[in-house]
Amino acid sequence: MKKNFFNVIGVMSGTSLDGVDLAHIFLKKELQTWKFEILEVETISYEEEWLYKLKSAVNFNNKELQILNEEYTVYLSSIINRFIDKYQLKDLDAICSHGHTILHQPQNGCTLQIGNLPILAELIKQKVVCDFRVQDVEKGGQGAPLVPIGDQILFSDFEYCLNLGGFSNISFEFQGKRIAFDISPVNTVLNFLSEKVGNKFDNKGKMAASGSVNDLLLAELNELNFYKLPFPKSLGIEYVKKEVLPIINKFHYLIIPDILSTFSEHIAIQIKNILLNKSGKMLVTGGGAYNDDLIERIKKNNPNIEIVVPEQKIIEFKEALIFAFLGVLKLENKINVLSSVTGAFEDHSSGFIYTF
């Protein structure tokens, strides 16, 4: 007999390295629709040691990556166990975990999310559903983005769902199918620039708001070849290091507020290029939803779109919520990855289920 109610935890670590997001979720199926309730939530910030390891891992060899994967799985298990104990969570159906992306090179048939080893289930004494991207890449897909099926089912009131995290990505219906793709870097670059002047991030975009747009830098950023590619397409931290930062570094004589202002304008323009001549409601989530300057630029560039910034739990934990949902769909052996989004040769039920 199929279950209609699930008590799960969604676990997510994003490329912006804010920390590990954990969200206790109730998911209930009513006829053909799903309802959700976000209960206890927490973000566990990375210690300096882990920040250094995760930032450096793109240069690790295979042996170093294997060791890192094992260490991170143990580290992640301790975070999840503390969350369960702190909130005295009982009768959980599963822990649905994304892990942390270290490598994402779908063009080379490669994607690696650490923290998804089978021992995770043993360490937390819970059923685990994880590693949602690998099978999609094996099926010829980008392995990303995976959130759009959650957008389609859980947030059907919105024509567009925009996430402003390490990268911006968007999902919407197009010619009868859900499509989604990464648009541009966001916090991977904005946070990198903020760190140069001793801040972890640009609080509410105040530094960017105080700066001026440099037209030469803006033009060069807007000419990046990625923006000319058709969807499906996705971005990784390697792309930022290889293609974006070298352009920014050429303008080293600019003050940081001016570079922040220029890159924020660049983000808004690239979103505008996707939404050209469109109208409707757009849900905006992710850490960038708190960047008042960036939100104002997006509004100014898209006057026909109603921008909706939701409650805090959805802003901060939407991805954890949706990975919880992807895990539930996997437990039900239901489709949780759309080929129209990733470019895989078929829709499929992705992820691995580990029991202890």
Instruction: Estimate the strand proportion.
Output: 15-25%
Tally of contiguous helical segments = 13
State the end-to-end CA separation: 23 Å
Shape descriptor: globular
Spell the H/E element sequence. EEEHHEEHEHHEEEHHHHHEHEHHE
Q: Care to describe what's here?
A:
This protein has 356 residues and is α/β, with parallel strands linked by helices. It is 40% helix and 24% strand. The chain contains 13 helices and twelve strands. The chain has helices spanning 48-56, 62-86, 119-124, 134-138, 148-154, 187-195, 206-210, 215-222, 237-250, 256-275, 292-301, 312-331, 339-342, and strands at residues 5-13, 20-30, 33-44, 94-105, 110-114, 128-130, 160-164, 167-174, 177-185, 280-285, 305-308, 352-354. Strands 1, 2, 3, 4, 5, 6 and 12 form a seven-stranded mixed sheet that branches. Strands 9-8-7-10-11 form a five-stranded mixed sheet, with helices on both faces. A hairpin with a 2-residue loop joins strand 7 (160-164) and strand 8 (167-174). Helix 8 packs across helix 10 (256-275). It is globular, with a radius of gyration of 20 Å. The chain starts with a strand and ends with a strand.
Key features of this structure:
356 residues; 5-stranded mixed beta sheet; 7-stranded mixed beta sheet; 13 helices; globular; alpha/beta
Please render the helix and strand layout as text.
Blueprint: E1 5-13, E2 20-30, E3 33-44, H1 48-56, H2 62-86, E4 94-105, E5 110-114, H3 119-124, E6 128-130, H4 134-138, H5 148-154, E7 160-164, E8 167-174, E9 177-185, H6 187-195, H7 206-210, H8 215-222, H9 237-250, H10 256-275, E10 280-285, H11 292-301, E11 305-308, H12 312-331, H13 339-342, E12 352-354
Parallel strand pairs: 1-4, 4-6, 7-10, 10-11
Antiparallel strand pairs: 1-2, 2-3, 4-5, 6-12, 7-8, 8-9
Helix pairs in contact: 5-12, 6-10, 8-10, 10-11
